[in-house]
Amino acid sequence: MQQWSASAARTGVPNLVARLRGGDRVAYLVASAAGVCVLVLTGLLAWQLVAHSALSRQTFGWAFLFTQTWDPVADQYGAAAFIYGTLVTSGIALLVAVPLGVGVSIFLSELAPPKLSSGCGLLLELLAAVPSVIYGLVGIAVLVPLMRTWIQPALRTVTSGFPLFSGPAFGVGYLTAGLVLAVMITPYIVSVGREVLLAVPREQRDASLALGSTRWESVWRVVVPHARPGLLGAIFLALGRALGETMAVTMVIGNRPEIAASLFAPGYSMAAVIANEFPEAGGGVYLSALVEVGLVLFGLTMAINAVARLLIVVSTRQGSPA
Amino acid sequence: MTHRSIRRRAVNVVMLGLTAVATAASVAVLFFLLGYLIYQGGSSLNWAFFTQLPKPMGEAGGGMANAIMGSGKLLLIAACTGLPVGFLAGLYLSEFASRPVAAVVRYAADLLNGVPSIVIGIFAYTLIVLRAKHFSALAGGLALGLMMIPIMTRATEEFLRAVPRALREASLALGASRVVTIARVVVPAASRGILTAAMLGLARVAGETAPLLFTALNNRFWSSGFDQPVASLPVMIYTYALSPYEDWQRQAWAAGLVLLTLVLVANIAARLLLGRRRLTSG
After folding, report:
1. Secondary structure of chain A: what % helix, strand, coil (to 5)?
2. Does domain B47-280 have CATH number 1.10.3720.10?
3. B208 to chain A: nearest residue by CA?
4. Mean pLDDT throughout B128-152?
5. pTM, entire model
6. What ranges do the domains of chain B cover?
7. Which of B19, B101, B267 sits opposite A111 (nearest CB)?
8. Which of A83, A86, B82, B245 could form an S-S bond across to B145 if both were Cys, CB 3.0 to 4.6 Å?
9. What is the pLDDT of residues A267-289, one digit of tens each?
10. Strand partners, B62
11. Which of A48, A80, A81 is nearest to A295 (CA)?
């Protein structure tokens, strides 16, 4: 007992130590319970989506994914228009955000002095923290009128008759939603992209510069290829965000459940239809169909995220020789 | 200088210049958002905004006091549920779990982190709202709490792992039990990082709208207790922004300004806190 009291005095918990020895088990149990809780919640989430979409899955089968009738009055549901909207807006977002995000990552990791780099990095992290409803708010007030009066008419004139850029300019629609998403996911690409570029060994750059390549050639032909899996991971992570993004898209996509050839046309996305119609659905097949839309969205983002994590793990291992 | 080398130099300058332009443009977005919200919302911010209830449609004036209270209430529930569970799960991962088990739990946390917030809303709806048969602050708060769990878990684990092994061994060698070692040595050493993560997590869910749309719903009045629908700033912004009334839209801007300021201040404070820790630990 001598030892005990000595250690008790040092840790400052007199007479509690002996009792806390037994506390090791309690602590283990409490912490494990929390760990199990994470597992159970994740499992339960997936299960709830599967269980509550059963009615819709039985009624419509796989056709749910390929038909675009969405008729709450006749109780006929198909999610094709929403899946299309989600994929198209995310695709537009990637087309814009990938060059932008990779460019910023290159600037921050290769060119900017450390202070500027960390300063800009901080600002971009703040940008990533801006709530999506704020993007929606500013999107409605600034981007939608801008698209309607300037960008869409200009695009239509320039491309003259190209089906993707035709039809009346509403302002709201796939293109606008895609652009808002692009702004939102760029910081995500940068935050991971900068890290993986910085993880490329210095010698690679030095060797290529010593062979006489310009700074850009060294970046583009040596550093970026070396970091490619990690950059891809960053892009997939951003794609996962874009697919599930709700509020900003709901506010600017136009909310019309039809597939249109033109990117100017108003559309709908999976997250947006859930946000708009879930509170009114009440129950029955309608609610079940909406949950199934959620299930599809869940499955899609899970798959994308899994690929992203794998790529990032691969590239960070490659980056550090240990 | 050959023609080819001139071309290579030109490409070099142009492409590197473009990366600088891209950076300037992305950073400018943040200042534009903040500036535009101040421009639109600043004039509608007044004492009434923070103290009064919303006025009926078409009537001028009123405020969002109930939404500010509601957001506070939802965050309280989220903090009381998400923070402890996330913290303990992180503790489990870093101090107790065996490798394969840790990998599974970590993967589950990452999955949960990637779940779209609207799907979290569906989950809370089917689990709580359907059973209770009514919308409630509790359902909304728990949805937000669930979103905090993976953020907290991964951050706690990361900061606990960063505590040097020697500290743990020293404490154990002095005869302290594992619990004492964890509670008095390991966690205090990582406390600043963990607090930062908690703040960032709260700031993130504070701006979430999607999981609240059909769990906490909305409320034009004060809500008492945790069993009624409750208003929140993000949902108010959403409904007011899409409304046809000019006065509501003005209030949406004011609410947006308040929300953005809160989120940015929390983020900057958290990073300052963490930055100092990095300095002191060398």
Report:
1. 80, 0, 20
2. yes
3. A131
4. 94
5. 0.91
6. 3-44, 47-280
7. B19
8. B82
9. 999 999 999 999 888 778 999 99
10. B54
11. A48
